[in-house]
Write a structure and sequence with these properties.
Strand content: 15-25%
Order of helices and strands: EHEEEEEEHEHEHEHEHEHEHHEH
Keywords: Transferase
Helix content: 25-40%
Distance between the termini: 38 Å
Shape: elongated
GO molecular function: aldehyde-lyase activity; transferase activity
Strand order of the largest sheet: 7-8-9-10-11-12-13-14
Protein name: DAHP synthetase I/KDSA domain-containing protein
InterPro entries: Aldolase_TIM, Class-I_DAHP_synthase, DAHP1/KDSA, DAHP_snth_FXD, DAHP_syn_2
Bound molecules: phosphoenolpyruvate, manganese (II) ion
Number of domains: 2
Radius of gyration: 21 Å
CATH topology of the largest domain: TIM Barrel
Oligomer: single chain
Number of helices: 10
Organism: marine sediment metagenome
Length: about 325
């Protein structure tokens, strides 16, 4: 249930409502928008009707949220959320580019990539130190050493870091280096991990499960939100279909639809969505036209030698061209890159 407060509501009126919510056995979430303050009730409290809250002073309206996701919904927060990462705003006017290799492979590889993607206009460096691979025999990442290399790249270039965390107990370790904690497609429904990042104070890039519906995706975001962390970027990275020419099928309609259903910013990963270097630029243009807030692109100094996902990685020259080709599309939809 959602309680919309009057625009001139006082602190005392809000605190009376919060006390009442607690008394009824619910948790309250306060959202202070530009125009309205909204109190969301979540949890399994006593059965309560919207009429219960209507007589309280300062209350403008009370209604039930029709969707199973509450805090992630536009009903709870009509204004779109902007996630701030060291001075970069995801969900603002500019489309934020996160670029870098699939995995951290060496110091040289990361430092070279970081400098080149920064020069081309990326503001966030990606790279997995812990890699959740489909095969236990594939390269599993450089782990702690990989995190150290990412920290060095951050210090040398000023780029923020997005990197994956694959286990709840690792959140503080990865969170020391990461500016954005990535939850991969294979872990979208790892509820212990979602709770752990929900309790940690860092933005989260939540990737859509490869077989998850949008409702399941938003329910995964709800786990993070209900544990106290509202800094979430949703990432569409393609879903599994019958098609085999592409690694996954990019669900482009998910971009405007997620933005309709939720206030959270939306990112597209054209590398994992297609599996193919030649498709990265065209699908990214489409994603920009569809209203995406960020792109997560794999870039490797020598894709042919990459330990993972070389076929879906751009080299630095191709990445420069990618950026140049995206700019006019962004301008056409009144966004910057
Ligand atoms: C990645 O971004 O490197 C990755 C493993 O992506 P996904 O979880 O979408 O497969
Ligand atoms: Mn990858």
């Amino acid at each position: 249930m959602i309680i919309v407060m009057k625009s001139n509501v006082s602190k005392e009126e809000i605190s009376k409502i919060l006390k009442e919510v607690k008394k009824l056995g619910f948790k309250s979430h306060l959202s202070k928008g530009e125009e309205k303050t909204i109190v969301g009730l979540v949890g399994n409290g006593r059965a309560v009707s919207p009429d219960h809250f209507r007589p309280f002073s300062g209350v403008e309206d009370v209604f039930r949220v029709s969707k199973p996701f509450k805090l992630a919904s536009r009903e709870f927060k009509p204004d779109k959320s902007i996630i701030r990462v060291n001075g970069v705003s995801v969900g603002g006017e500019d489309i934020i580019i996160m670029a870098g290799p699939c995995a951290v492979e060496s110091r040289e590889q990361i430092l070279e990539t970081a400098l080149k993607v920064k020069e081309a206009g990326a503001t966030i460096l990606r790279g997995g130190a812990f890699k959740p691979r489909s095969s236990p025999y594939s390269f599993q990442g450089m782990k702690e050493k990989g995190l150290e290399i990412l920290a060095e790249a951050k210090e040398k270039t000023g780029l923020s870091i997005v990197t994956e965390v694959i286990a709840p107990e690792q959140v503080p370790l990865v969170g020391e280096v990461a500016d954005i904690l990535q939850i991969g497609t294979r872990n979208m429904q790892n509820y212990a991990l979602l709770e752990a990042v929900g309790k940690y104070n860092k933005p989260v890039l939540l990737k859509r499960g490869m077989m998850a519906t949008l409702e399941e995706f938003l329910m995964a975001a709800e786990y993070i939100l209900s544990n106290g962390n509202s800094n979430i970027i949703l990432c569409e990275r393609g879903i599994r279909t019958f098609e085999t020419y592409t690694r996954n099928t990019l669900d482009l309609a998910a971009v405007p639809l997620l933005k309709e259903l939720s206030h959270l910013p939306v990112c597209v990963d054209p590398s994992h969505a297609t599996g193919s270097r030649s498709l990265i630029t065209p699908v990214s243009k489409a994603a920009v036209a569809a209203g995406v807030d960020a792109l997560l692109v794999e870039v490797h100094p020598h894709p042919e030698k990459a330990l993972s996902d070389g076929a879906q990685s751009l080299n630095p020259e191709e990445f420069c061209k990618f950026m140049e080709e995206l700019r006019p599309v962004a301008e056409a939809v009144k966004r910057g890159i």
